[in-house]
Every structure is written in C-alpha cells, then in structure tokens.
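Below: protein 1.
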Amino acid sequence: MLKNEIHSVVKYIIILFFLGCSIVARAQYPYEAFSFGGKTGLVALANLEEVMPPAYRMWDNIELNSRYLIVRPRPDTIIVFDKMTAKPLTGMNVATIYTVTKLAGNIYLHARKGGKSVLLDSLLNERMLLPKTYDECLDREMAAGYFYARKQDSIDVFRLGKEKPERLVSVRGTNLTSAASYNSPDPDKVAYIIYGGPATYLLDRRFKISRKIDSAVSAGYQLYQLINPQKEVYASPYNGEYEETIPPPAPGAFVPLGNITAGRISYASAAGPCKLTMPEDCALRSEDPRHMLVYKSYIVKKNGYTSTMMSDDRSWMFVLDEKNCRALLPVKYQEELGLKVDAK
C-alpha cells in the first residue's frame, strides 16, 4: 500500500520547486503562490484572500526566486507575476522545457531571444547570450566555472567569463559525462567524455580534446572499454526490476501524531513549532514547511490488492508560516479542506 502511495507522491515531488524559497525572503512580499487541484494561484498574506484563482498547471510553473512566480500557459509563452503586486510583468518565448538551469551555484531562466538562447538571472536581467538556440544548459559532473549546452545531437562546452561565456568545444554528441565514473587511467588527460554521436571524444581537465575515437558509443560498459582497453568488460545480462525500499522520515518530515480522534488526524515535524489537523481521509506529505502537500486519499481494491491513492483534483499545496503557525492558503480552501493550524 505504501509503495503505491509513494508512486503517487513522486509525481508531485518533482514540481515542488515552484514554492521553493525561504520564509524569511517571503516576509517582504505581500503575495504568495499556492495550488489547488494541480493549478497555481496567488494569495494575499494580509487577509489570506485569493487574489488570483488557480489557473495554471503546477508542472508548467517555473520558480526562479522568491519574488517572481513564472507560469507557462502555452509551450512557447511564459507570464511573470510579481509577488509585490500580484500583477503580470511580461511574456517571453521559452527555448525548452529545461527552463531553469543552475550554473556555478546561480539559478538562471533559459529563454530565447532573436533565435539565440539567453540566460536571465533571478531579477530577469540578461546575463548570458549564447551563440545559438540550445535545448538545455547543464553543469552536471563538470568542474566549477564550466558548463555545456546541447542542441539535438551536438554539444558545445563553455567556460564562464566576466562578460560572456567562452566556447571551448563544439562537437557532435548527445551526452557529456565525467571519466571518473569509468576509472580513467589518466584523469589529467581523460577527465570527460562526450559520446552519443558518430565519434567519441576524450577531454582533459580543461576541456581540450585529448583524443577522438571514430566509434559510436551508447552504453556505459562501452565507455569503460574505450578508456580501459587493457581490461575485459562484459555487459550485464540482468534486466530485472529492483525492490523499492522506503527510507526513514527525514528530520524535518511532517508525520502523524498519535491516533485518529473524532475522525481527524494531526501532523507535525520533530523540530517545527506547528501542528496541522485535518480530516482522517486527508494525508500530508512534506519534509519542509516551504513545501506542504495535502491531498484527499481513497482506497482502491483490485485483484486482491489494496492501494491508497492520491486524488489529483482534491489536492492543496501551500507554504507554512511557522513563525505565526498559519497556512498561506486562502481561507476558503482551508475551510473546504477542514484544515486547522495550531502551535504544538
């Protein structure tokens, strides 16, 4: 039963970033984002009145910083709402679904301008104009100060500069990975690998091509063979499914308190000062007061199995103001949900 429940929750975990900013930063803005039934709106913090009804799907939201809520009503358009005014600022074309990227510890919005990719900072100022339109920009597994941009079957590697990024490498390929994962015998000369194209490229620590191998590679064991030709490597025939394990609750996780009383259940975290009480057919999933997800659950019995499922259209997401022990959710939704927040 728990396994099925977790499968339902995972869908929401990947989009929780749209609420991801600190309580301290929120205090200076009079409006905050919330969601109901998988769609996002804005609430006034002064009186917890709804100022923008839930209208945009959560999975089309982009959280760039605490001041702006960015939504995407269409694949090629975004609308920026300012939490100071609850009014939209502007719209712009979005280059790709990978709209937010983190480079050297900074968060950028990846947008399109004049047929080229541009990275905007958290105040929506243009910071980097790239030479062409890319599908995504990443610095995963790369040394600090470097990133790569991919467009279909080509990869460009850049070094961050004071004014603009410097392009170091431009080759055909679909993946870039660290050679450390494949036991590189010479980490200075073979530090990174670009593969997935007609050839495979071995790069040194400064992203200079140290060797080009005219061989297409698509699997990990093939990469291992290329950089360790003296060793014999076999592909594993196992293709089964792994048993899923349920980790223990994180220290900040909200867990049920005691038994159900009068049809109601309470949740709290070990370190937090607040307690949330709701009807017993509701469930709370959160490891952080910035990311509170409450949903109506229901039981499904099929083929002798019983599962607890999450109702997508009866779900609420909001920020918990721990200083004042209140949910930053419009009052009408709290009443509909039957939610009560108190000090422990």
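Below: protein 2.
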Amino acid sequence: MTLKVSIVFSFVLTATILGPHARAQSTQKPAEEVGPGSTKLGSITGRVLADGQPVNNASITATSLNSTGQSRAVPTNDAGDFEVKGLEPGVYRIRAAAPGYVSPSTDSDEETYYRVGDPVRLTMTRGGVITGKVLRAEDEPVVAIRVRATMIRDMNGKSPTTVEASLDELTDDRGIYRIYGLAPGRYVVFAGGRGSRGFGTNAYDNDAPTYSPSSTRDTAAEISVGSGEEKAVDIRYRGDVGHAVSGTVIAPTNPNAPWISINLARLIEAAPDVRMSTYQNAGGKGFEFYGVTDGEYLVWAQYAPGSGETFVSEPRRITVKGADVTGIELTAKPLATVGGELVLEPSTAEACKEKRRPLFDETLVAIQRNPKAAPKDQPQVPLYGAAQASPDKTGSFVLRNLAVGQYSLEVRFFARYWYLRSITQRTATATSKEATNSQTTDVARTWFTLKSGDRVTGLKVTLAEGAASLAGQITVPPDQKLPPQMFIYLVPAEKERSDDVLRFFAAQVEADGSFALDHLPPGHYWSLAKVTSEGELTSTAKLRLPGSAEARLKIRREAEAAKFEVELKPCQNASDHKLPLKSPVGTATGR
C-alpha cells in the first residue's frame, strides 16, 4: 500500500481515498494491525527498473517520517531487487539513485510514501547528456572552465525549486565538457561564474556566465533533453566581467551549527530562474556572491541552528545593473509551527466489531502552502511551504518550519473502516480579566493563515470508526463505448450535511468502467458519474478546498438532478453500485 501526499497548495484537511489496487499491495497480517503502539520490526522490499530492465547496484534509501534518525541505505542486486530490513512501523520515503539514471518526473503533485511490509516498484530512466566545446573568439579552447546545465522546466512544464536541478563539469585540455545524468526537461547551459554554490576554484569563477551560444541569460538558448538523449551545445566564451552581491545575515548563533545558507535567484518574468547559493559563518562578518550578471534577483537566507527550529529571512528583491550591490541586510526569523492531536472514535455498531484500528505510526499529517494567496507584486520563493509528521504514541503531532502564508492540511491513514470525521481548533478568548472561554472552530471549511513565528496549537483531528466503501460499475449501452476522463463523485444528500466538505469524494473511473471509493462516512449520498473537461476538479483533496465552494455546489446540483441516491451503513462494503451512462458527454442518472 502506498501513501501519496498531495501538493495542493491550500488549507483544508482531507483524508486519503485508498482504492483496491493500493490495498492489495499490503503484505501485513491483520493480527499485526490491531492498534497503535506496535513495535514489531519489518522490512520494505522492492525492485528498480529502467525501460523494463533491472537497475543493478542502485542505491536505495529509506527515510522515516516518524523520527529524525539517519536514513537506511541498501544496494540493489543484479535483478534490481532490494530489501531494507529492521524498520520500525511507520511511513517511509523510498528513493533510488544510480549513475546515469534519474527518477522520471510526473504530472502529479503527489509524493508516494510506503509502510513497513509494502512491496515497492521504482522506475528510473536513463539520464540525458549535454556535451560540447567552450572556445574563445579565436577558436582557442577554454581549459578547466566550469560548465553548468541548469534545468528551467521539466517535461511537464514545471519549474524546479532547488539549486540541485543543475549539474556541472570542467572542460578538458581540448575545451570539451560532457554532462550526463540529466533529468528530461529544458535547460540553459553556461560557462564561467560560480555556478550554484558560490565557491571559486579558478580564474573564470568571477566572470559573468556566458550562456549558449554566446549570450547573457536573457537571450540564452533553451535546450530540450529527453531520456537517454545526447545534445551537442558549444559555447563561444565572452569573458564578461561579473559583479558582486554582498551583505550580512542577522541570525541567532550556535557554535555547533555555524553555517547560514544564502540563496540568490535570477528573476525571469518575475519568476525565480537560475539560482546560486553561498554561506556565511554565524559568527562571521557577512556573505558575498561573485560573477553575478545584470538583472533582477531575489536574495534570502535560511539557518537551522540545530534546535529543530529553522530561521528564514523574507526574500529581498535587488537589481544588479553595471555595478556591485553591497550592504544587503537579511534578518532570519523563526518559522511557524502547527500542533495538535489525533483522536480515534470507536463505533458501537455490531458490523464494526474487531476491525483494524489506524496505527499512529502509519498515519501521516501533511501541510502545504497556497502560493495563490501571495501578493501579486511580491515574487515568492518556494521555501518551507510543506511539512509532514506522524502522531506520537499519544496522538500528538507537530508540523514545523512553515513560512508565512495560507495552508492546507491532509490526513492520510490506512484503516479501511475509519473515516475523517472533523478537524477543529480550540482557542481561548478572554471574557474578563478573571475568566476565559474556549471557542471551537471548524477549520476544514476555512483557510488557515500563518505568520512568521506563529505557534498554533489546539488542532484536533478526529478519525471515526464506521467507514463504508463503495465499488461498482458504469453501465454503457451496447452501441456505446465508455468515454475517457470519466469520474465518479459522491456528495452528501442530507441537507444538514450539504456544507460538510469532508463528505465530498471523487475518483477516476477505470477503463473497464469500474470504480471504488473508501473511507466514506455512513449516511445518504448522491452519486454522479460524469465526463470531465479541462479545469474541472477531479480529486477529493481539490474538491474540498475552501476556494472550491462553487465547484462543490455545481457538482451537488448535477448529482441531485441525476437522482441516484445511495445509503451507506456503518462498516458496509457496497460492491455492486451501478450507474447507467445515458450520454457520452453527460452525467449518469439512476432511479
């Protein structure tokens, strides 16, 4: 069973809908899943493939989200198989690395996590290659100059968010370089300058970068590189003089963690593009970037003094134009934290007896930031906009190091017969100097806003036993075929539940017309099958966002008009729900 964390930038709390394929992957025995607190060690096994062939001697790392301990690493064998043993119960991030290979990008905003006992299948693809020569105007080779390929968009058109989206090599005595292991995407290639790390090694590092073919960043050629593809890119080196950007970071000091990271990102059409980073010693006098070309930039600092807390400065916009920029002062401020508790509410229904309870170790609480809420005239950098945590043995959880913004929270769990009932926050309000009252707010329907240094507490996530599941088939007349992009929606039929965002569900219909929905609160629903168009919401997480109220209302009206009602009882597995398709572009109707 895999656990996917949706990177939907907003703040509503949602539960995972785990389909039958995900459930079938679990290899744990029911006896091992009876409740919180299990300490039995287990393993995660899997295989790594590239183009259907095994990748041997790949390095596999398993990182637990339940602790700050070191990652576990193992190699794959000749068949591409691996096993990470001795793992405590929990959720893990599994990563593969192999020379010349990369993990393919997807158009999904979800990251997959795994439980102990899960089988894993990882796919890799051969990395691309960019090679060529760096020559002077008189065709002389430029020897030992650093050449860097920086991704500006992946194959899905998404911009990378880290400086690690770059690779570099030095030219040889013929001026030839070869950069391999590139993920598919679009790149700019440049020679000279400090690259992404701000440390100089030779005479060219203080020059302004020369981009292929022989230009500045504004007119640089963009090179598309596919899986296993090799592109020839020559650079005619200009040798332009670069500028310096310098300043000081104000931050708390810790002798055990002395280094402050400073980042510089070039802005292209107000969006961060090519990036650099350097460091300042917390007890030192400042930082400096060299080899900076003219243009608009964002500069910011981040510092983790070792206390589990991270400090980040607000991004500052600067302009480099024909001269050095000095005297920049950045103040690193503590980021926000969000804390709460996870509560389990058992059912007294006879049908729910002896059902598996959620394990706290295998429950994931994830929070993501909504970039759409940022001021339009203030460029944003994707810093610390997400966090994940698993509740401890008492159900308490803390999400740390969150930047200013609006957020959404997701709750992911595996127990089939449980559902997300509510998410609330209890806050104290003063009624007089001597007395205070507590106020409970339903935060599932509203945005959650964080400011720098906020310490939000009092969140309560309630999982209730009694969840039902619904599976079935879309029936199509003999003379018709099931159209693509068909989804099934489930919306509350009771008027008093019409605004309960946690009772809205969506799932894609399979090619054979089958569908499945899990973790459904018992009650009355309208079911609707429809062909979706571009821009319509097709996931439970996006459907539940506070900004999706109009979309929910529209779908609910369509479902009411279709008049296909279903009643789900506690712990019921309804497996024969049928929705007839009356029109290839319409909605499914029923009784």
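The first helix runs from residue 20 to 24.
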